[in-house]
Specification:
By secondary structure, the chain is α+β, with helices and mostly antiparallel strands. It contains 9 helices and 11 strands.
Length: about 375
């Protein structure tokens, strides 16, 4: 059948996971009591009418989103991958146990005595694929986990060198990767036992800040900094009015605003994670989106777009040098949220290169 509500439910489930112009391909099967559906609204029976269309929408969107939040595209097959409980709005719930045991990782005997360097080198893995069996057909153990959803702390997502931002957090997929360094001041180079993983530092940090802001808006708490004098930002009267109409919702994100004039907005306070120098660009972009959307979007979608704008303008940029500890802390923060594989605009956060492909490219295996 064709049903715009179900199509909208699929698109809603994939929100913030696909880039602009991309659409999901899905087969949706809905089981319901026949008395709850009217099939006689179209001559070709290609459309139906649900007695309670909102329930059908929520069922489809909820089922898809809960599956996507398990990040099934990530293969977790190291002993450091731990299935953690979900921490939502300050209450912890226990997730299911891992469906299969993790393969043990061999211990390395370091040749030097100074272990303060905290160097972890994965043991070289032998690839003895039969010539008749391509490497891609080798089955890899898979597990899923429910990642932590942390209430927004409002603090900088990675701590200065020499400190640890999440020492008590259980190690997940991203934090189990060994950090090798930084490529082109843009990509964090990591490795596991099976592959090299390049992580886009801007996209990764953008997702972390976005999730913290959304968690804060949904009922958490974000740490803010109060300004001695309001920061005056000039913009068109239309944009000022648009921001003021959303002032209550914007305040829940930690941004407190007031009108200083018909063409000036004043910022009384802002989240600690937002750089003061970026507030002007953030608010102008927020105002533009509010004015352009004209109230036709749902509140959560509007706030989501605002959070994505704040995140994009307030995080580490490409070309910015990061210390080893900063890179490790960013990976730890990524494990706190289930959809860290994509930035809020749908761009992929990481690219993987299996070692067996390198072995083939260098002629070590056939």
């Amino acid at each position: 059948i064709q049903d715009r509500s179900l199509q909208a439910a699929v698109n809603e489930a994939y929100r913030n996971l696909l880039m602009h112009g991309e659409y999901p391909i899905a087969a949706v099967w809905v089981e319901t009591d026949p008395d709850c559906v009217d099939v006689n609204i179209h001559p070709t029976k290609s459309q139906v009418k649900f007695q309670e269309p909102s329930l059908a929408f929520r069922a489809v969107a909820g089922a898809l989103r809960s599956t996507l939040e398990q990040a099934p595209w990530i293969v977790r097959n190291t002993e450091n991958t731990i299935q953690a409980g979900a921490l939502v709005a300050g209450s912890a719930t226990t997730a299911n146990d891992l469906s299969s045991a993790m393969p043990a990782m061999p211990q390395q005997n370091l040749s030097f005595q100074d272990r303060s360097l905290d160097v972890t080198q994965f043991q070289k893995k032998e690839f003895n694929f039969p010539k008749s069996v391509p490497p891609s057909s080798v089955q890899q153990p898979q597990t899923t986990y429910q990642a932590l959803a942390e209430a927004a702390s409002g603090r900088e997502s990675f701590a200065p060198a020499g400190t640890s931002a999440a020492t008590d957090a259980p190690m997940g997929y991203w934090s189990s990767l060994e950090v090798l360094g930084q490529a082109n001041l843009t990509y964090i180079v990591t490795q596991s036992r099976e592959k090299i993983v390049f992580v886009d530092q801007h996209a990764a940090h953008e997702r972390v800040v976005f999730e913290k802001l959304m968690t804060a808006w949904k009922g958490g708490k974000v740490d803010i900094q109060d300004f001695l004098f309001p920061l005056a930002i000039d913009m068109s009267p239309e944009k000022v009015e648009g921001l003021l109409t959303m002032a209550k919702e914007i305040e829940r994100l930690g941004v407190h605003i007031e009108a200083l004039g018909p063409g000036t907005i004043g910022v009384k306070a802002a989240p600690l994670m937002i750089k003061e120098s970026s507030l002007s660009g953030v608010l102008d972009r927020m105002a533009t989106e509010i004015v352009d959307q004209g109230g036709s979007y749902s509140l959560e979608r509007t706030v989501g777009d605002i959070c994505a704008t704040i995140a994009c303008h307030s995080v580490v940029r490409a070309g910015q040098s990061l210390s080893h500890d900063q890179m490790k802390n960013l990976l730890r923060d990524m494990d706190l949220f289930p959809l860290s594989s994509f930035c809020p605009h749908g761009r992929p956060v990481s690219v993987e290169y299996p070692f067996y492909k390198l072995e083939k490219d260098f002629g070590r295996i056939v």
